[in-house]
Write a structure and sequence with these properties.
Rossmann fold; alpha/beta; 4-stranded parallel sheet; homodimer
């Protein structure tokens, strides 16, 4: 059975298409009897109005785009879930796409989303995006737009973030509070705002506690991965035996470091305490369970959609508002990897 | 800057809208000079054609729907990634939605996708879906439709699956090959085809090796979770000390069982070998690393989109094909949790 059209219904009933359309829309100038006849047949044939025609009239798709660095990534999957669940309440669906952390791909994916006439876009910047004209173009076209998680101070738009400086400071403070005297940091290159801010928070905590920042135990990995964390962990075990605390900027890096410590028979947390960042599900099932900073993805996704929805309404009503940034709170979660 | 319309371009150039439209579409009855003038201005103003009008003409959205039990789920996230990457090559975008493993929600989410006029739908059934009229309705409406991973023999459509019987049989055989004599199974209720088939494969392996199926060490959990696995693991440690092998139908259950064994000081793999199912990323970072069955989500997603794309083409060309099922191969991955 193919899709039932308005034409088909009008042919079967021998009525004009305009009468059928009016009957379906409950217009008063069609008699109740005719209305019932048309509506009953429409129900029977499972008639669906042509959404494309409706979209053309309303210029709305009720679809938004969600573009992120990675789909196979616990934190981002919690964001997809938060966005999708919130969007659904307002009748919106969510196109999900990934940049694979690549600047050129980000440009391409944004164009693909615009081609689908989404009503708005949520974007978390690729790690190597340092030019922003492609983003500014979208915003200048008047497309409702919210940046989340990985944002840039150089883009003026609504944002949903965590306070990375404060979160990293709290994580480092946790290590200091439990007695760590020599704390290493494992991080990615200082390119994205998140990394820069977490690095800043780490140094701030050291400074405020009268501790010296030691460049030789500041490890820069190739990326945020398990293996980058393991490489740094190996270096710590081999050349920096006085390190008694490790702050890794991602849970995966922290777990990689745990693996290196285990292979070198360094006891966690007795000899070295380790704290990660993000509170991925897997931190609850490592040995030992990993202390970390909870970065609530579902809440970030929810807040990002709500901001975007507000922008969509503002656009309809020709309302202009100054850009705002919503900061979602984070908390340190102390588990077995810190004393 | 708001969106540039065809009308705007025609006003600026003092041409009719139809001339502008023809010039943009390279019609030969518009002079090359005029065509260039129009196209240059369109480029300069960043003109985008009205996709809604194009969609109305083509009756295509170039968007497909992907509906799955869970978004925050490693295996399903690899499927999203496989679908999105493959779809993109054909210019399609992917709406992602979740049923939360709930039958009623599945019905609702399917309707939401149809409301968005997607060109096709990929569905993995909710765990408690045992009636299929909502799915059959979609198929009968002529919407291109592919079931993947969690399917049903009662639905006649294209499918992408793994051979769960064979995969479970191979996992159990691996335990037998390394010398396990008393093998427990940890599973969910026997409702979904996948669970039924994996259970069947487990029993088949025992039978073919002349081993007795023992109902007392066949553990049925509330769900597929870490905690369901841990509960079963605790029971094994407390009441079935002769068990020397555990086959868990999901990696999470297996990791829950590992945790229980660890808490009871049962050595893995020396006293008990454990194998999971799915090859989630986290199996590579547990202690010990978990043996498992690789269920390649990216490949499943890729194959599912390719099948759907073929259906979309067939629909355009009025071609009918018999339903087919593509079986994606699985492999046993032996790591440290099995001897």
């Amino acid at each position: 059975m193919s899709k039932v059209s308005l034409t088909k219904i009008s042919e079967i009933l021998g009525m004009s298409k305009s009468t059928v359309s009016k009957a379906l829309n409950n217009y008063a100038d069609v008699s109740p009897g005719t209305r019932k006849k048309v509506q009953d047949l429409a129900n029977e044939l499972n008639y669906k109005p042509n959404i494309f025609a409706q979209n053309l009239r309303s210029q709305e798709s009720k679809i938004i785009g969600l573009l992120m660095p990675e789909i196979v990534h616990y934190f981002f999957s919690t964001i997809i879930s938060g966005v999708a669940e919130t969007a659904e309440k307002y009748g919106y669906s969510v196109i999900v796409a990934q940049t694979k952390d690549d600047y050129k791909n980000e440009i391409k994916q944004l164009e693909l989303l615009l081609d689908k006439n989404v009503d708005g876009i949520l974007l978390s910047l690729a790690d190597d995006t340092i030019h922003f004209n492609h983003v500014k173009d979208v915003i200048n076209q008047g497309v409702p737009f919210v940046l989340f998680d990985r944002t840039s101070k150089l883009i003026d738009c609504n944002k949903v973030v965590i306070d990375d400086v404060k979160a990293a400071q709290m994580a480092t403070q946790h290590l200091i509070d439990i007695g760590c005297k020599k704390i290493a940091i494992i991080r990615n290159q200082l390119k994205s705002q998140g990394t820069i801010d977490r690095h800043k928070g780490f140094k701030k905590a050291l400074l405020e506690n009268g501790m010296v920042y030691d460049k030789s135990i500041d490890f820069e990995g190739r990326d945020f991965s398990f293996s980058a964390g393991k490489i740094a962990g190996n270096k710590i075990c081999e050349s920096h035996k006085d390190v008694d605390g490790i702050f890794a900027l991602t849970d995966l890096m922290a777990i990689g470091a745990l693996e290196a410590l285990k292979e070198h028979n360094v006891a966690v947390p007795d000899q070295v305490s380790v704290i990660g960042f993000s509170n991925w599900f897997l931190t609850q099932i490592t040995t030992p369970h990993l202390s970390t900073v909870d970065q609530p993805g579902f809440e970030i996704g929810k807040a990002a959609f709500n901001l975007l929805y507000q922008e969509i309404q503002n656009k309809k009503n020709n309302v202009k508002e100054a850009s705002k940034t919503i900061v979602i709170p984070t908390t340190v979660i102390s588990r077995d990897s810190t004393k």
